[in-house]
Design brief:
The chain is an alpha/beta fold. The protein contains nine helices and 14 strands. It has two domains: 85 residues, Alpha-Beta Plaits, CATH 3.30.70; 198 residues, Rossmann fold, CATH 3.40.50.150.
Length: 293
């Protein structure tokens, strides 16, 4: 199809949106983008593919995992070269919080921030982890606020780094040593590409690693971030807390609001000290939790 892309879309019923969101988190980075109308709950799933074969492969992954809980009705359209570049742009726009700006590469030359701002540039083809999703935004807000309030900034670990955006921001706002891990080699590669785009390739360590591999004499960190999902956070709560120093901050996200109490209860059980502070944040259907030890 030369430089054209195949655009595939499907409407998603409100009661099925949650299942699809969780799947996309597990699969990230992904060619799919899920847009949700928070007024009526309806969703639209869209993907861009270089060939019918690529779409068939990705469709099989979706239907094999979700066929019992999500019904898809795909429609297709052929997007010419210039058109698909513009279509990607429709999904991403600059995001700004407390002097930190996440900027798509196509806005690099025109974006106007303050001279003192920190700008992080993201490749338009890397859909997951641009700061557009509520869970990522809450992680970034907690991270930026903590640094502005003077948290210790020696080292940070980003569990499930995805596109590397949390690691990139952490390094850019003051952390001396940053480690991002993900069990998906593609995520680690994309994180490295985004680091290169921001001239941070040599400043952040990205590793393909599973949480199970962190259980033997783990390193200790001032700041631990895990934007994953509730069941993994609960199952690996002991591992996550084993990574923390005595005075540290933990940020947990990727949690549906209806699941936040379960996650909080699990971590309170592990660290019952009354001096430890728990803070929650909520945007739409999603919540995040910050723990200050």
């Amino acid at each position: 199809m030369d430089n054209s892309l195949l655009k595939i879309s499907s409407k998603i019923q409100p009661e099925q949106v949650e299942f699809l969101e969780v799947f996309l988190y597990e699969e990230a980075p992904s060619p799919w983008v899920l847009e949700v109308n928070h007024i009526n709950g309806n969703g639209t799933l869209t993907g861009f593919f270089s060939s019918q074969k690529e779409f068939n492969t990705q469709q099989s992954r979706l239907t094999n995992a979700l066929d019992q809980v999500v019904q898809f009705s795909f429609t297709s359209a052929l997007i010419k070269d210039q058109d698909w570049k513009e279509a990607y742009k429709a999904h991403f726009s600059p995001w700004t919080y407390m002097g930190v700006n996440l900027v798509p590469t196509w806005d690099k030359e025109t974006f106007k921030g303050e001279p003192s701002d920190v700008n992080i540039y993201l490749d338009p083809g890397m859909a997951f982890g641009t700061g557009n999703h509520e869970s990522t935004r809450m992680c970034l807000e907690f991270l930026i606020e903590s640094v502005r309030n003077g948290c210790s900034q020696n080292n940070l670990i980003d569990l499930g780094c995805g596109s590397g955006i949390l690691s990139l921001v952490a390094k850019s706002i003051g952390f001396q040593n940053v480690l991002g891990i993900d069990n998906d080699p593609d995520a680690v590669r994309i994180s490295g590409d985004n680091a290169l785009l921001n001239t941070l390739k040599e400043s952040i360590a990205f590793q393909t690693k599973d949480l199970n591999q962190l259980t033997t004499k783990p390193d200790k960190f001032d700041f631990v971030m895990a934007n994953i999902q509730a069941d993994i956070l609960i199952n690996y709560a002991e591992v996550i807390m084993s990574l923390t120093k005595e005075n540290s901050t933990v940020v947990l996200s990727g949690i549906l609001t209806k699941e936040i109490d379960q996650v909080t209860e699990k971590f309170r059980y592990l660290i019952p000290d009354s001096e430890i502070n728990f803070s929650q944040r909520e945007i739409g259907e999603w919540s995040a939790l910050k723990i200050n030890k």
